[in-house]
Specification:
16% helix, globular, 10-stranded mixed β-sheet, Cytidine Deaminase, domain 2, 221 residues, single chain, binds zinc ion
């Protein structure tokens, strides 16, 4: 297996300054809320289209791991003093290693990805990656940790692990001290469309309804 980590050569980009879309999003948190103990460096917002793309890809193969990249925007809300990501673009990785117990990224696929992003989404950044653990649960393996460290080294880059069999998912996000807890995953904020209907169906997350925000009378599945 030829895997040479390659760090994208672009200079360190500052986050773009914009308001966090907290009033247009529904927060999904794990049943055991770890945010009392751990503070993620970034909060993750995901469009419904991006969520659906990930779920469709995740459910397309229940025997092998599949995965890909997540692109979008890395932002900073100066009022709330909070960094956050908006994930709106999902790019499935080519199937590289049939029957593999884990997903692999290669230098070639990573280079092809950056060329694709530069050409088709010049305004977007690579904010992370996703992959599935069919019948294995939502956790971060030592392989996942290695891959994340080498291919997604920026502190604000995140990893999403999906368990398509039991309908579960969670984000692995570095904390402010740049440490990543491999046993604890975070939820995310679902950006709600004009229909105000949630699309999230992962059973390991629950919606945190903000009763003070009348905008957020969403219909949860
Ligand atoms: Zn994994």
């Amino acid at each position: 297996m030829d895997i040479k980590p390659r760090i994208h050569p672009d200079p360190e980009e500052p986050p773009r300054r914009t308001r966090m879309p907290i009033h247009h999003a529904l927060e999904w948190a794990p049943h055991e809320n770890i945010e009392d103990v751990l503070t993620p460096l970034v909060k993750v917002f995901m469009t419904q289209n991006a969520y659906i793309r990930v779920c469709a890809h995740a459910g397309s193969d229940l025997d092998n791991e599949v995965g890909g990249w997540m692109a979008g925007k890395y932002c900073y809300d100066a009022t709330l003093q909070q960094q956050f990501l908006v994930i709106d673009t999902i790019l499935a990785a080519p199937y590289t290693n049939h029957g593999a117990a884990h997903l692999t990224f290669t230098s070639d696929s990573q280079i092809a990805l950056f060329e694709f992003l530069e050409h088709y989404h010049p305004d977007k950044q690579l904010v992370g990656w996703y992959h599935t653990h069919p019948r294995m649960g939502v956790f971060f393996s030592s392989w996942d940790e290695w891959l994340h460290k080498n291919f997604f080294p920026k502190p604000w880059q995140v990893a999403l692990v999906v368990e398509p069999f039991t309908a579960a998912g969670g984000f692995f996000i570095r904390q402010k001290n740049n440490k990543l807890d491999t046993r604890s995953y975070f939820g995310f904020y679902e950006l709600i469309n004009h229909e105000k209907k949630s699309k999230v169906f992962w059973k390991n997350l629950k919606p945190k309804l903000d009763l003070t925000n009348p905008e957020m009378e969403v219909l949860v599945i």
